[in-house]
Amino acid sequence: MTLHLHPNEFAQRRAKLMQTIGKGNIGIIAAAPEYLRNGDTHYPYRQDSNFYYLTGFPEPEAMAVFAPGRPEGEYILFCRAKDPVKEIWDGPRVGPEKARVEYGAQQVFPIQEFETRKAELIANRNVVDLKPHVAEMRLHKSDGEIRLMRKAAEVSMQGHTRAMQCCRPGLTEAYLEAELLHEFTQHGCRAVAYPSIVAGGINSCTLHYTDNNAELRKGDLVLIDAGCEYQYYASDITRTFPINGKFSTAQREIYEIVLAAQLAAIEQIRPGLPFSETQQTVVKILTQGLTDLDILKNNVDLKNFYMHGAGHWLGMDVHDAGAYKINDVWRPLEPGMVITVEPGIYIAPNSKDVDPKWWGIGIRIEDDVLVTANGHEVLTAALPKTVSDIEALMAK
Ligand SMILES: [Mn+2]
Predict the structure, then answer these.
(1) CA of 52 to the centre of ligand 1 (A)
(2) Last residue of a domain, one of 119, 137, 155
(3) Containing domain of residue 18, as a range?
(4) In the chain, at which end, N or C, are there fewer CB atoms within 10 A of the end residue's CB?
């Protein structure tokens, strides 16, 4: 059964936006364009997140206008007219008539009329940028949105589980990617939230590795950072595991540091915690752990082994909308926000002054965390991440 947001939710968002921008002002937002990939072939269409957030309208070539207090209608939608010939090729279009009834616009016009009607619409009104207002709204997830994010998390966990279970030396990274996509697609997620990273061995030290074409070798780790998108909502999970199902001593030692950092950062998440605190906790634990193993020494910067942030907002976009700071101060977490927690350690081959036994080990562990009224809930908690749980799953 496919989950959807209730149409009322889109209406509530528009009402809130109207209130925010206020009478006498007007905001306009465009649908995402279609992009040509090559020849006559387009990239799979994905509606613009802000446009979809406010309209629920899935088609390209559309404009939404928000004019609070306008007597003829506050929410005006421009969309493609019906076209029986084109619809034979590409399927039915919503069309202006149905757009008014089903998508709640008070006035709907064919997109061709946008330019001529625009002047009249904005006359005597200030045009405001909707982006910061919508970003602020998107940062706080409703129950309906959380339901969709739970589903995205669940499907992504199934993909990761499948990849762990079928992993063995001799396969390619692409083979594991296909296993992830199998679960995503089968469960209604035709799109990934971002290009899947399946990085075996030293490829794990390339943060945004997406070639996914190398052979998986016995004795190496594989890092998988992959998440599906469900009904416009993203999930974002990373797991790192041994290709042959058993961590080596060196791999386990690094893994336990990353895991300890991740668990400690997650543990503190609750309303009021400044966003930057997870990073501080991660840095503290990684620094201590790498110092204990004599990897971090002689005033070497931790950035040589951990060079990214501990997380980001998650929602319709994998790096979701919303300001991280207000007046230059890290904002406190609030119930309904969703963040990722994703520490990592990456020891590049030939790292200077580092024992070669650590070379090529790249480990990241990432979960999706909902801030609740009293603390937090890890949406991706059911996916194994301790050494023993991963080894047990892979032995099955
Ligand atoms: Mn992430």
Answers:
(1) 22
(2) 137
(3) 7-137
(4) N
| Domain's final residue, options 110, 137, 164 | 137
Token couple for 140: 């706080």
- Contact assessment for residue 369 and residue 376, using Cβ atoms and an 8 Å cutoff: yes
What global pTM score does this model have? 0.96
> What amino acid positions are annotated as catalytic residues?
40, 208, 225, 236, 308, 312, 319, 342, 346, 364, 366
- Per the prediction, the chain carries an average pLDDT of 97
CA of 368 to the centre of ligand 1 (A): 9
Say whether both 112 and 240 belong to one domain.
no
* Nearest residue to 355 via CA among 254, 283, 282: 254
- Predicted confidence (pLDDT) per residue in 241-277, tens digit: 999 999 999 999 999 999 999 999 999 999 999 999 9
Q: Count up the domains in the chain and report the number.
A: 2
| Continuous H helices in 104-248 | 114-122, 131-139, 143-166, 173-186
What spacing in Å lies between the alpha carbon of 233 and ligand 1's midpoint?
A: 14
Residue 76: partners with Cβ closer than 8 Å, 6 or more residues away: 64, 65, 67, 70, 105, 106, 107, 108, 109, 121
Q: Are residues 214 and 152 in the same domain?
A: yes
pLDDT at residue number 348: 96
236 CA distance to ligand 1 centroid (A)? 5
17 CB neighbour count, 10 Å cutoff:
21
Which residues are within 8 A (CB) of 370 and not within 5 positions of it... i.e. 6 or more apart?
141, 146, 149, 336, 337, 338, 376, 377, 378, 379
Cβ proximity of 234 and 318 under 8 Å: yes
In a domain, 230, yes or no: yes
Rounded to the nearest angstrom, the distance between the alpha carbon of 206 and the centre of ligand 1 is 14
Asked whether residue 298 carries a pLDDT value surpassing 90, the answer given is no
- Share above pLDDT 70 across residues of the chain, in percent, rounded to a whole number: 100
Confidence of residue 234 (pLDDT cuts 50, 70, 90): very high
Among the listed residues 155, 204, 211, 162, the one whose alpha carbon sits nearest the alpha carbon of residue 184: 155
With respect to residue 1, please indicate whether it lies within any of the assigned structural domains: no
